Amino acid sequence: MGRGYGFGKVILFGEHFVVHGVSGIVSAIDSATEAEVKKAPGGITIKDERRGSKGYTEEKKAQQIESIERMLKSMGIESKAASFSIWLGGSLPGFSGLGASAASSVAIARAISEEFGLGLSDERINEIAYEAEKAYAGNPSGIDNTAATYGGLLWFKRNMAGGPNIIERLSIEKPVEIVIGSTGIVANTKAMVEGVAERKRKNPQKYDALFKQAEALAFAAKKALQDFDLKKVGELMNENHLLLQKIEVSCKELDFLVDLARAQGAFGAKLTGGGGGGCMVALTPGRELQEKVARAIEKEGFEVLRTKIGVKRL
Length: 314
Ligand code: MEV
Description:
This protein is of the alpha+beta class. It folds into 2 domains: 2-170, 2-Layer Sandwich (Ribosomal Protein S5, domain 2), CATH 3.30.230.10; 176-309, 2-Layer Sandwich (Alpha-Beta Plaits). The protein contains 10 helices and 10 strands. Strands 1, 2, 3, 4, 5 and 6 form a 6-stranded mixed beta sheet that branches. A 4-stranded antiparallel beta sheet has the order 8-9-7-10. A hairpin with a 6-residue loop joins strand 8 and strand 9 (279-283). Helix 2 runs antiparallel to helix 4, helix 6 (189-202) crosses helix 7 and helix 7 (204-226) runs antiparallel to helix 8 (230-246). The chain is globular, with a radius of gyration of 19 Å. Bound molecules: (R)-mevalonate (MEV). (R)-mevalonate (MEV) is lined by residues 11, 15-16, 18-19, 99, 137, 140-141, 143-144, 189, 193, 273-274.
């Protein structure tokens, strides 16, 4: 049997903008998807036992099948002739926005590599998972699969000419608590990404100005993180949320959770990932503040994940 894992992620700065070549910042979280792959007769079968993933799994079924076909093609394996079972599990919940699709693609690619003795490098796993991500995001930037493969806190800039992306490891003084709140709405990342591209095409002046602001924000955030100026990081997250509202990827449930987290003392809060549902992230340094914000969100009937950014071992 082959085994693999892929990290979940939270985008701190730049979702959607990164698709178009703007810089972004992403952190792996201490939850991962695990996969097991075993040669077996009867074609490809999938047993998905990811936490809280029922609605998520059902919504994404067709995209999951397409993603595996894309993955096999990229590995040079004929999908019609392939015959193995896949099991998916691990601690990463199936909330939209946490990179669950990329985490599962990375985990499956690693497990296939082990089961079939392919000995693939992390770089190849990342490339293969990128191909798989196209099934879920249409025109993905590559930020999710990069975080799922390498983990850590990363600076990311897509190479729009198709060459290697810029990926830099960032380090911060010490890990910082965050709260991730899920709207419970399964979002369609592909539709969200297409929507932004469409509006950008129709309204280039407005969008170009917003994209410039997003680039400046990413650089300011990198500095604030490196200076460990968490108040500043929080303010910049709030600004980023405003930009995401302007490109129309937020929704009333996300705005509600963002406002709630801020009212409870979060240093900053924003949607994270594709938007249109999915998750938000709040910067809540210290266990006490983290707990306060998490409980307030739970009290309103939403699920949360208490985790940290900047953890070295991830
Ligand atoms: C999704 O987690 C992030 C998006 O920016 C899409 C992408 O970068 O591929 C919305």
